UniProtKB/TrEMBL annotation:
Organism name: Kribbella albertanoniae
First and last residue of the signal peptide: 1-29
Top-level taxon of the source organism: Bacteria
PANTHER family cross-referenced by the UniProt entry: FASTING INDUCED LIPASE, LIPASE
Pfam (any one): Lipase_2
Protein name, UniProt field: Alpha/beta fold hydrolase
GO MF, any single term: lipase activity
GO biological process, one term: lipid catabolic process
InterPro entries according to UniProt: AB_hydrolase_fold, Lipase_EstA/Esterase_EstB
Length: 171
């Protein structure tokens, strides 16, 4: 069975491999047009902007810049997936700007948030969450013109990404 184009996002092992291999250098003018501030502490990030941190629709700094085009040095966009009880802004206040500052196109979303606890995600059905991830992958591929994406996921994000890939291959 031939894999659908979006399913090739599994190019990078889900986890911190990308983080440890790309965060060794500093951004240059050729790789990052804007130097994004990096929030190293969840506590500092939360108290600096509690409304933003609790808004599941607010992407982390450096993420979801839809005009970003991958470079030859970093041809694959990066999608960040949060963990259970987190959201895109809460889980990636350091990683998103670090990747963007190093020349990557970075994207994220909050999946699985519920009306009874809208500020955090990961609480919805796996089917619905994986469909949202698949839709984001499709949108990123279309927007950037890339052939595949890298996924960096935390906790439940790894399961959602795996489920999305499995569902797509099974269809």
């Amino acid at each position: 069975m031939r894999a659908k184009p979006w399913a090739r996002f599994w190019a990078c092992a889900v986890g911190a491999v990308l983080v440890t291999t790309t965060m060794t250098g500093t951004a240059s003018a050729s790789t990052a047009a804007v130097e994004h501030p990096v929030t190293w502490s969840f506590v500092n990030g939360f108290f600096a902007d509690p409304l933003g941190a609790l808004d599941p629709a607010t992407p982390p700094v450096g993420s979801n810049v839809w005009t970003c085009k991958p470079t030859a040095a970093h041809p694959e966009p990066v999608i960040l997936l949060h963990g259970l009880g987190g959201n895109q802004r809460l889980n990636f206040p350091a990683l998103s700007p670090l990747l963007a500052n190093n020349g990557y196109c970075v994207y994220s979303l909050t999946y699985g948030n519920q009306s009874w606890l809208p500020t955090v995600g990961g609480l919805g059905s796996m089917r619905t969450s994986s469909a949202r991830v698949k839709a984001l992958v499709d949108k990123v591929l279309t927007s950037t013109g890339a052939e595949k994406v890298n996924v960096v996921a935390h906790s439940e994000g790894t399961t959602v990404a795996s489920y999305a890939l499995y569902r797509d291959l099974a269809e």
